[in-house]
């Protein structure tokens, strides 16, 4: 048990950051359009996420492991994210990210913001190059939901004290299970089901929703 006031969990690609990290990697292989198309269809709920991830990661085979430093220069935090994180931390909240992207980039982003929890995929590397495979547990929609529940339990919080923010179909279970579920500039399937929406690219607007519902930020 802790004295934590609440927990906010965000998706990363197209939520915490403006870009889709795997699409940036795909561009470096010359298969950017193909990767982006699979990403779009997966986020709309048209494709099984695990299969879509495997198909995209396979196209990355042969890239040097230095590519993560390369794409970091192309990644931009979404407007308002620092205000959101800093304000919640000042109010006794914990903030985390759960991503279908990769620890190789997500960890650095989380460190920059001082986030409390991180869950993402790991890319396999051999002889300094990507093998085109993911190692370990794949972060599916079920894993995102399980992470929300696990972290809330660790903090001694009820799900009613949590907030989940995301844009894609794989974010829906955690959005619907949280106390305040927010679709952020989301795909239609998410907007149609999420209790709350933000349709402006400013994550700080989540503070207004939390204040309206809970009155404590």
TrEMBL record:
Keyword hit for Amino-acid biosynthesis: yes
Cofactor(s) recorded in Swiss-Prot or TrEMBL: Mg(2+)
Protease listed as a keyword: no
Catalyzed reaction equations: O-phospho-L-serine + H2O = L-serine + phosphate; O-phospho-D-serine + H2O = D-serine + phosphate
Entry keywords, A to Z: Amino-acid biosynthesis, Hydrolase, Magnesium, Metal-binding, Serine biosynthesis
EC number: 3.1.3.3
Name of one Pfam family that matches: HAD
GO BP of this protein: L-serine biosynthetic process
Metabolic or biological pathway: Amino-acid biosynthesis; L-serine biosynthesis; L-serine from 3-phospho-D-glycerate: step 3/3
Gene3D superfamilies per UniProt: HAD superfamily/HAD-like (3.40.50.1000)
Top-level taxon: Bacteria
Active site: 11 (nucleophile), 13 (proton donor)
Molecular function terms from GO: L-phosphoserine phosphatase activity; magnesium ion binding
PANTHER family, per database record: PHOSPHOSERINE PHOSPHATASE
NCBIfam families: HAD-SF-IB, serB
Protein name: phosphoserine phosphatase
The organism of origin for this protein: Pseudolactococcus plantarum
Lineage of origin: Bacteria, Bacillati, Bacillota, Bacilli, Lactobacillales
């Amino acid at each position: 048990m802790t004295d934590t006031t609440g927990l906010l969990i965000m998706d990363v690609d197209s939520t915490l950051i403006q870009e889709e990290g795997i699409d940036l990697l795909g561009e470096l292989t010359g298969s950017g359009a193909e990767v982006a198309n699979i990403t779009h269809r997966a986020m709309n709920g048209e494709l099984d996420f695990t299969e879509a991830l495997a198909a995209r990661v396979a196209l990355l085979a042969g890239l040097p492991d230095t590519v993560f430093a390369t794409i970091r220069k192309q990644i931009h935090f979404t407007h308002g994210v620092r205000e959101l994180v800093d304000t919640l931390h000042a109010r006794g909240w914990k903030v985390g990210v759960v991503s279908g992207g990769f620890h190789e980039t997500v960890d650095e982003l989380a460190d920059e913001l001082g986030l409390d929890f991180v869950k993402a995929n790991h890319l396999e590397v051999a002889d300094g190059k990507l093998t085109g495979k993911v190692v370990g547990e794949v972060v599916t929609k079920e894993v995102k939901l399980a992470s929300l529940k696990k972290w809330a339990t660790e903090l001694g919080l009820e799900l009613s004290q949590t907030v989940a923010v995301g844009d894609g179909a794989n974010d829906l279970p955690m959005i619907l299970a949280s106390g305040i579920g927010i679709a952020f500039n989301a795909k239609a399937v998410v907007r149609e089901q999420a209790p709350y929406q933000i349709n402006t690219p400013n994550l700080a607007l989540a503070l207004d929703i939390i204040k309206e519902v809970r009155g404590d930020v």
